[in-house]
Fold:
Amino acid sequence: MFDQGDFIEKTSEQYFDEENNQFLADRYITGTCPHCSNERAYGDQCENCGTTLNATDLINPKSARSGNVPVLKETKHWFLPLDKYENWLKEWIIEGHKDDWKPNVYGQVKSWIDHGLQPRAVTRDLDWGVKVPLPDTDGKVLYVWFDAPIGYISATREWAEQTGANWETWWKDPETRLLHFIGKDNIVFHCIIFPAMLKAEGSYILPENVPAFEFLNLENDKISTSRNWAIWLHEYLEEFPGKQDVLRYVLTSNAPETKDNDFTWKDFQSKNNNELLAIFGNFVNRALVLTQKYFEGKVPEITGLTEEDKKVIDEIGQFPAKISHSLDLFRFREALAEMMNLARLGNKYLTDNEPWKIIKTDVERVKTVLNISLQICANLSIVAEPFLPFTAQRLADLLNLETLKWKDAGNAEILKPGVLLRNPEYLFEKIEDETIAAQVQKLLDTKISNAASTFKAKPSRENIEFDDFAKLDIRVGTIIEAEKVAKTKKLLKLKIDTGIDKRTVVSGIAEYFEPEAIIGKKVSILVNLAPKQLKGIESQGMILMAENSDGTLGFMSPPEGFVNGSEIR
RNA sequence: GGCGAGGUAGCUCAGCUGGUUAGAGCGCAUGAUUCAUAAUCAUGAGGUCGGCGGUUCAAUCCCGCCUCUCGCUACCA
Structure:
């Protein structure tokens, strides 16, 4: 792309730390916030007032690395001119994929394009990352969303070299269906930036579809590996040995295809016990046990088909197409449910025909019933494979089947009469309440330890003299009135009995306290703070609050029995 | 603040270009059954389709406003 002149070179001014000889990311610059005068604001944001900043907005900027004053210095960057691809993207996605891309993906791409695309820098000044492979580019690396997609290609290439495959088949062959499975937060990268790169380079194919998923939460909270709010696969495999497919099943049936969804352990248990075990596992077990009991485990032959048998066989034939159709449309939940319907068909067929009853009077009929039931099992071993690969293999083994392909499914002649089946084994086992409780407890524990460990107490501020402290006049007071300040999210207007007088204080605590609930509350109040107008109300003082690690607030309440106006020292 | 997606039975979700009693799975209730890991099969009870207003003979589905959730993005002080 560089050789083709696909990039724009642009020079701009950014803060530079002369001592460390590097450009500073916004995060590495601190200074005084121009809005709230907090002296510890970062170059990208002031954590005191929450304002988003540019590094050049800061008053008295300092480098967080050396403590020195950074200087503005010119730096050169390479930009991908996304605007040049706007028309092409419009044609390709807005017109070309109006009907086959998911609404969330299409909508967001359209929104971006409608707003007009800007050239986007693909390099950064950082001392870590993938270096820019050009002369005189010390200290410059590739922007993560420029180098990550290239990483997908490199990874394919590495895999291909190890396995003797041709990586270009996957990325350049027009016959290849390239699909990007991503989360909704990455839509712009996979639908605009990466395709623009591929298009610019010229010899790559484009994704046929980018079916972005929404987000999966865990027990009602955002999944976060850094907060350890996650289910780690290696732990899962140790704690639930042999249950890979259970997790696959639950994740597929809960997949956030159209909106955010929640993974809960209770749901995991219920899907295992009530669906996988009760419907799928149980049906297979019924068929195998009956065959074992009545025919020494040998597949019986068909002795004659009733109308009902023919109907069932016809239904079996429809499953592969139904399932693959759903898969083609990226409706994985639907495909999975359809697969389970085949097991349901089996259960119903057995119950309707009651082989355990007619065995006493009509052995020939039982042969047919069990043959068809076993054919359903055989079909299951094929159509379950995309969702439950381990189970599919175990089931095939139980049936003494060679590995079969998708095209082998859909008929009732997969198992040959006379074939000896293995002894029945359970495909799934019940997951008990205690097991689930333990997993939930494990998560609760991380939540507790998270709260404790991620909280870093701020370093103490500069020392002050006693006289400085003595200037503060803090008193015991009581809230006697409280109401929300209109058109604000955070503010409550409080009337406080300070013992000296009854005064109005506006306090930013509305997110944590209902007005009615705090009337009568004893508080500590700074009474000699200069009055300030907030939302047109004069606030005369300040209520002292403690702020917890998660941002929640609590009153600094005086002990019981202390009267209004008592001094706090 | 702007944009995008979503808000349908207790839970998870379907509902095509608007049209008789809004569907499925799980859960729940009742009945049947006992080959099967108290599994299965049948039947049933659950929804003013987020709220308000509009278009229409007719709206879950179209339009407007509001509200809540998630994502992208911006900016003022």
Summary: Chain A has 16 helices and 21 strands.
